[in-house]
Amino acid sequence: MQHEVLIELFKNRPSLAAELLHEVFDEAIPPYDEATVASTNVTEIQPAEYRADLVVTLLHDGVVVFVTVVEVQLAIDPDKRFTWPAYVAVTREEYRCPVDLLVIAPDPSVAKWCEQPIPTGVRRFVLEPPVLKRELIPKVTDVVEAARRPELALISAMAYGDTDEAEEIGRAALEGFSSLDKKLAAFYSDLLYNAINEAARRALEVKVKGYVFTSPWILDAIQQGRDEGLRLGRDEGLRLRDEGLRLRDEGLKLATRSLINMLRTRGFDVPEQTRQRILAERNIERIEHWLERAATVTNLDEVFEEQH
Q1: Domain boundaries, the chain
Q2: Alpha-carbon gap, residue 36 to 59, rounded angstroms
Q3: pLDDT digits (tens, 9 = 90+) for 46-86
Q4: pLDDT, tens digit, for every residue of 115-124?
Q5: What is the DSSP string of 41-79?
Q6: What is the DSSP string of 243-255?
């Protein structure tokens, strides 16, 4: 999973971080009516600067009631054991409400490292980061759920794209994307196809062939694919035609030069007019006939006698 892609998905659905904290880690989330992406700069009034991957605020009646600091961790970074407690403390001071940390760590070894408690030195003040590792990521196989939370459906496909469940997850995600706007659906579909294994891709392509789509973005994507296929086919046909013509011309040149050289080797004087006639000939079968005769005739004119 790419760091930037995961962050983008959480930005596109700001409430997703809180939803996962509640559904996966059973964290208590207060009632809210809006989720927004806040500034990722969690710098306090100090020379040091800390910037989290994503900060999401939950609001109720316009007041921030809960904040989630989202961190995507794809590798072990010892500095995080110091910056994560700072993110939480400084964000809590800024918003004056409960703050939680959600770490996304798809790699098992990195996830295990992220899960380790972080003692701050203050008695009983130990940060135990909630870590969303691969096996905790929900498997979204329901089309309705994929349509409701397409970002989670895509994360599910990215997590399990190399498993036997990739086809079922991919199918649900692909159908769920049809409710999105055209550009976002195309973007998510591209990410989906790159996330799942080859067998799942082939299976989805077969399903696509037998399905009559009504979604405008899918129809447009299919038409674009057809147009691109026609263009590629036309270009390849022209390329093959040009390559065939080039090879034919090279064959003609080789054959005519061979004929002239053979005649000279046999002691025939080849007049310029005869040479030009040979070089101008475009029928390879006629040239081959001349070559055969040039090996046995005793008179130059006999070479060019018509076949009977």
Answers
A1: 1-136, 138-211, 220-303
A2: 8
A3: 434 467 899 999 999 999 999 999 999 999 999 999 999 99
A4: 999 998 988 8
A5: B---SSS---B-SEEEEEEETTEEEEEEEEEE-SS--TT
A6: HHHHHHHHHHHHH
